[in-house]
Each structure stands twice: as C-alpha cells, then as structure tokens.
Write a structure and sequence with these properties.
two-stranded antiparallel sheet, alpha+beta, 60% helix, rod-shaped, 2 strands, 122 residues
C-alpha cells in the first residue's frame, strides 16, 4: 500500500511539473509575442516622429532663409541650424547661405538644398 501511495505521489509530482512547464512555456511565448508587437508599434511610432521632426526642421529653415534674404545679417556666409531632440536621439539640419545673403528673388522662396514648399492643395 505504501508503494502504491509513493507511486501516486510521483505521478502527481510529474503531472504537476509538466503542467507548470506548460504554463511557463505558454506565458513566455505570449510575453515574447506582446514584446514583439510593442517593439513593432514603437518602431512605427519612431519612424513617424522622425518624419514629422524632419518636416518641421525643413519648414523652420525655409522660413529662416526667407527672413535672412529679406533682412541680410552679414556679408559673410551665414549658417542656419535647426535641431530636434527625440528622446535619446537628436536630429540636426543646416543650411549655409553664401556671403551677402541671397535676395528673395535669388532664393525663389526656397532654402538652398531644400525642396519647394508643398502647395496648399497637396
């Protein structure tokens, strides 16, 4: 009888261990799946944030170029810089205007090296 009880105890221990391993494996797989989904969402969010920041810096530099063209600052080259901090990363763009600052006609309302502003209908 004692041997039978030991055998049942061993079977219970084995079954309990297998059940715990199954639960642990299932939880780990689901946690990895959730982490992967979160990483993918963060990646998409980061890409959108970078694209938005770059667009904002381009707009800022375009406006600054127009202002310098309208009211020259110096006879020497002028560097305009726009930067944005994105958490652990910083983005920076620069436009160097030639000496004597271009006139509005020279820039055609576009900063050197930057594409023309989007039209309102886009």
């Amino acid at each position: 009888m004692l041997d039978r009880m030991k055998d049942l105890g061993n079977q219970l221990t084995t079954l309990a261990g297998e059940a715990v391993d199954g639960v642990r494996s299932s939880v780990r797989e689901r946690a990895e799946s959730i982490a992967d989904a979160a990483g993918s969402a963060a990646s998409q969010l980061n890409e959108k944030a970078v694209r938005t920041a770059v667009d904002q810096m381009r707009t800022i530099l375009r406006i600054a170029t127009e202002e310098v063209a309208a009211k020259p600052v110096s006879e020497h080259p002028v560097t305009l810089t726009a930067s944005v901090n994105l958490g652990f990363t910083a983005l920076e763009m620069q436009v160097v205007l030639p000496g004597g600052a271009p006139t509005v006609a020279d820039t055609d309302s576009t900063a050197p090296g930057l594409p023309a502003p989007d039209s309102p209908g886009d």
